[in-house]
Amino acid sequence: MQHSPAFQALCEAIRTGIQEIEVSELAEALALPGALLLDVREDHEWAMGRLPKAQHLGRGIIERDIEKKVPDKDTPLYLYCGGGYRSALAAHNLQLMGYSKVHSVAGGIKAWIAKGLPLHTQ
């Protein structure tokens, strides 16, 4: 999907204030005690396949529901989407809400697939 220039500019501006993690670093990061991998894509994207051990909390509801799902704001959170844009926006907002260990997966699920890593579909 080709994103609009304004959307891309917004995401690039936000990236300077968030932490990103490469797909190659994700397995080690998820080994941290309590670390969570959150898929922020839409429901239909989630149904087509997701990263192993991911939990779904879509971009449209994450800010509304995160405190119920993850009350400890020091929990290491790793967010991904299709290409790293929506997860960057979600990471930014979660930081504004007081979450201190939020990371966006650079390149999202597309980067995961490009490395030939497995997806879960059930």
TrEMBL record:
CDD domains: RHOD. Residues 31-121 form the Rhodanese domain. Transmembrane segments: none annotated. SUPFAM superfamilies: Rhodanese/Cell cycle control phosphatase. It comes from the Bacteria. InterPro entries: GlpE_sulfurtransferase, Rhodanese-like_dom, Rhodanese-like_dom_sf. Pfam families: Rhodanese (PF00581). This is Rhodanese-like protein. It comes from Gallaecimonas xiamenensis 3-C-1.
